[in-house]
């Protein structure tokens, strides 16, 4: 294959790499290396990191539970309006996250479409809580899982499922024992993408869940506020976020290469 | 009355407000309290306003680029229109963002002629860097308690912000309106039970206007701009906190004459009249 490299591709790819690498290099160049450890140990950072990691995990878990069945319906059924459903489900990817956050507030807020009656009867409130962060993350990040799993399901060989059916397996058993394991690579990739997107979520979170250290202040929110007052702290926070993201994205890349 | 129409439009278009807020504008009027250290930049004000306002019709032309704090958005659009009406050869280009964002852009070489900041420190930094020449204070703003229309939390004063049962929002302490709010609370001896530290004043206002928060602390001009969706409650006289906005010409601007004329217009009686109609006090 190496002999067949179309050479025009190489410089363009190099431009692509440089374009992404340069801002990160600039960030590293501005980093307060000497005080980095102190910056990272501050409670505001550890609180935000812990909240970010756990809420992103929870959002990924919710996305898996809802998203895999959704991807299956999109990939394997021919329900009417399927393409509209797909468009709807991917809408959060193109919507500015802040608009998503406002929409969530209209739906699940104290005066929201669903949130209003729920609050009036039970006193339960999603905004301004860690669950609100999870809700915002799920809304924004789930499409990444759904689309990835859907394309995985489309590419999968359905004859295994046919064989399982002829052997007498129930539909649920087939889904659980054949379909999902077959789609495992795409599910793992989708889950990682979903988690990474949730980890970096800003707009929907701040609009829907607000910002309070230890309760709803995730890393991106802490970075944003630190930028207003203390650039060194903001860069230090960003580096932590980048390090955590890379720890996830590198295995993700390996999986793609392996696949 | 113009204000009224604007207010209604804003109340109706809550979603739009949310979008606008999102664009990172810190809208908050960024205002820092008129701290002791600000005196040196205020001294030039009257002189500058006086001399330059005297010659508004000097042959100025071209484009004048004005960077202004987001909290000035509505007011400065009208100010710019009035300035253009009086100087037909001049076009005003307005750019609104948080004062600190604009400061960074100016330091990075953005070609602006005028900078109107909602806090003193941004202008002081530019003066120190040699990017701005002498500033003049042009308006004052003050903090107000904001509640949703109808005041569902039955808020009466700052003391209610300590109520655990109310949903309380402040500006984050990193932004000036958050610092100012905490100053007022400290004066009142109130430890607030905060549910969210909003990144800017407009996002706080938006959440109060939607009824998702029971009470917040914002600028009086923001309460006016939000119209019927919210109600403002004045702070008790001994709790009042105010902030002063400076305006300055920039040394790297492409049109210094027009920039100076714009500053003079803002400081003139007509400019002050427009600003007052948006709830700003004279400095």
Beta-strand share of residues of chain B: 15-25%
Query: Averaging pLDDT over every residue of chain B, what do you get?
Result: 81
What's the CATH H-level homologous superfamily of chain A?
MetI-like
Count the E strands of chain B.
9
Number of helices of chain A: 13
CATH topology of the largest domain in chain B: D-Maltodextrin-Binding Protein, domain 2
Helix content of chain A: over 70%
Q: Biggest sheet of chain B, in brief?
A: 9 strands, mixed
Supply the helix-strand structural class of chain A.
mainly alpha
Radius of gyration over C-alpha positions of chain B, nearest whole angstrom: 19 Å
**SSE order of chain B:** HHHHEHEHEHEEHEHEHEEHH
In one word, what is the shape of chain B?
elongated
CA-CA gap between termini of chain A: 17 Å
Low-confidence stretches of chain B: 1-56
Number of separate domains of chain A = 1
Per CATH, what is the topology of chain A?
A: MetI-like fold
Family (chain B): Belongs to the bacterial solute-binding protein ModA family.
GO molecular function (chain B): metal ion binding; molybdate ion binding
Biased composition (Polar residues) (chain B): 40-49
Signal peptide (chain B): 1-27
